[in-house]
């Protein structure tokens, strides 16, 4: 199987897993497909993930994708460590609930701003005939 097909299959499996279990399911699939306990590919994958995480930490103070790069590195490492997979699943649930609260808040704010906006003149008179 080619790299592109493998990545598409992995992405599809990640999307199909329920929130809060995505990375743990990915870890389980990785463990089932493992041939050797500690091969050079595993060491390379861990080193790559740590390198990406360090790049993300370096980029965090600057405006840009610091957190995204860090999370990408953690996702690479989550294939090899169950505790990283659990932390990512926990963080996903918290981010989803925070996103929903923020979305509800903004929807409420826009509604209240519309209610406060009117076509009254400076003295409170309606300028429409």
Number of helices: 5
* Strand coverage percent: under 5%
In terms of quaternary structure, the protein is single chain
Number of domains: 1
Which term fits the overall shape?
Answer: globular
Distance between the termini: 72 Å
Largest sheet: none
Order of helices and strands: HHHHH
- The tally of beta strands, per DSSP, is 0
Radius of gyration: 23 Å
State the secondary-structure class.
mainly alpha
What are the segments in which pLDDT stays under 50 over at least 5 consecutive residues?
Answer: 118-122
The pLDDT mean sits at 81
As a percent range, the share of helical residues equals: over 70%
What keywords describe this structure?
about 130 residues, 5 helices, mainly alpha, about 0% strand
Structure characterization notes:
The chain has one domain (14-114). The chain is built from 5 helices and no strands. With 129 residues, it is mainly α. It has helices spanning 3-16, 22-33, 40-59, 66-77, 82-116. Helix content is 72%, strand content 0%.
């Amino acid at each position: 199987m080619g790299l592109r097909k493998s990545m598409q299959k992995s992405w599809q499996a990640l999307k199909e897993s329920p929130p809060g279990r995505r990375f743990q399911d990915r870890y389980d699939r990785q463990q089932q497909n493992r041939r050797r306990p500690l091969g050079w590919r595993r060491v390379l994958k861990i080193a790559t993930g740590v390198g990406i995480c360090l790049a993300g930490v370096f980029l965090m103070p600057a405006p840009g994708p610091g957190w995204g790069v860090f999370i990408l590195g953690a996702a690479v490492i989550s294939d090899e460590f169950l505790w990283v997979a659990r932390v990512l699943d926990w963080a996903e649930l918290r981010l989803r609930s925070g996103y929903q609260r923020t979305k509800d808040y903004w929807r409420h704010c826009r509604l209240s701003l519309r209610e406060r906006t009117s076509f009254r003149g400076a003295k409170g008179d309606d300028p429409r005939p």
